[in-house]
Amino acid sequence: MQGDEKTMRGTLMLTRAEINRLRRNRRYLIFTVGTPVVLYLFFSKAGKTVYGIDFAAYYMVAMATFGAFAGALNGNAIRISEERKVGWIRQLRLTPLPASAYVIAKILTSMATTIPSIVIVMLIGRFEGGVHLPLWQWFVIAVVIWLGATIFAALAVAIGYRYPPDQAQPITLTLYLVFSVLGGIWYPFTGVLGNISKGTPTFEAINIATDVIGNKSVPAYLAIGLVAWLAIFAGLAVLSVRSMAEAV
Amino acid sequence: MSHSGTGPIVSFDDVSKHYGSLKAVDGLSLELRRGETVALLGPNGAGKSTSLDMLLALRKPTAGKIQMFGSDPYHAVKSGQVGAMLQSGGLMPEVTVRELVTLVAGLHPRPVPVNTTLRRAGIEDVADRRVDRLSGGQTQRVRFALAIAGECDLIVLDEPTTAMDVETRQRFWAQMKEEVAEGKTLLFATHYLEEADQAADRILVINRGRLLADGSPEDIKKRAGAKRMSFRLDGADEAFLLRLPGVVNLETRHDLVHIQTDDSDGTLYALLDAGYRPSEIEVGSLGLEQAFLAITAEDDQANGHEPVAAR
Lengths: 248, 311
What we know:
heterodimer, B: alpha/beta, Rossmann fold, Alpha-Beta Plaits, 2 domains, 4-stranded antiparallel beta sheet
């Protein structure tokens, strides 16, 4: 399987180049790391109990989710749309790299670049917010938030491939606000809004993490919900990429 | 390589690409042989870019079959045998020229050393600049660098010298001749007719998605009605002049008549035999540009279309 090996090596080279680009991008860093950290330092001392755990712990989970999902969605959707517009995706298709490598590299890049925002917010939570958890819980909530954010990279592909930048921008912003507000990132909802909230992937990721922290059993619907959203976003991404096969 | 035989390295077999009722490419058949430098010449909208897109597996033909290096276009491109530069191709933003060339070379099975590519494309001086901060001409040269970043057997260029100044263009073709001298095949689309004349040893003229002429620059000039004739003549009607033997095209302004003819002697004798006595008779050869316009205008008239102006 020499061909597969070559393909994998090429995809990783592209991923490394993408990561280097993002590392240099100050706006991306401010957005995915700076904003959640600053918000956490401002608001984590509310001293209440949310989802049955300390506010400081809930808010740490919320801010880590916020930085990671915002990075996966906003970072990718508009970039992909712009790279399609300038013709970079076409150019890449003239290289020996297979057509799918671009999307795979984008998702790998997203997975790599959301790690710092999750880790940094958790470090701040531990040392500034006074959140104390067993080691395995730190690990589990980090992975849940990380995978929960990654499904938004699939949504970003779906948007970036289908819409030109001037449309991708407002669509992304709208979805970003909907999923952060309804997902309970800014503040947990109760009542009717609380029930709607339960259907969002952001809520589901946050609540799996807060249930783990609160030593509660995680309801199955949270995990099923996340998998369903992944299927929806991935399906939309495949449709977008296919419909643009001749128009990249 | 294994394709050292004399068979074609690229073949289009009755290839069409339709967008609804628009026939962008309409039954195109052609073959390229190893080592040729071929110009694809045609007015805007003739189907040049669509043909190259299909050759490079960016678009699928509606009908017909394209083969390249004995396989389908996608696998030929993925095997690294083709280097290509398209008008619509763009660059990855936010990286330096050197980083980008290094990346694309690294994706190739037979990478060319990055410094060699930078020198060949004439972009050593901007190697550490960010690609999104280059001028139009510099960007064009970076795109060319990406086309030659790997060793390949066929180079495909879509209007390669757009946005280049005269000096850069000459340097570009000098560089290209070196590349081709190594036995590579070159296919380029252009609307610069002198460029096709000077750089290519074979010209394919296409219009409305169909191949109108295929030959050396000399053949093309001959094919169009090789001679241009002008004279002054009072009171001759156009219908009569158009019926003269050999006449391909006619233009009159007051008493001044311009004729394109593939038989200048026959045209002139018939005019004199009819009793006319034109003055200031001049007969000369057509340039490639006029030949090209004549061929496409003939095609447009034959199909009842408005002539398409060549850029």
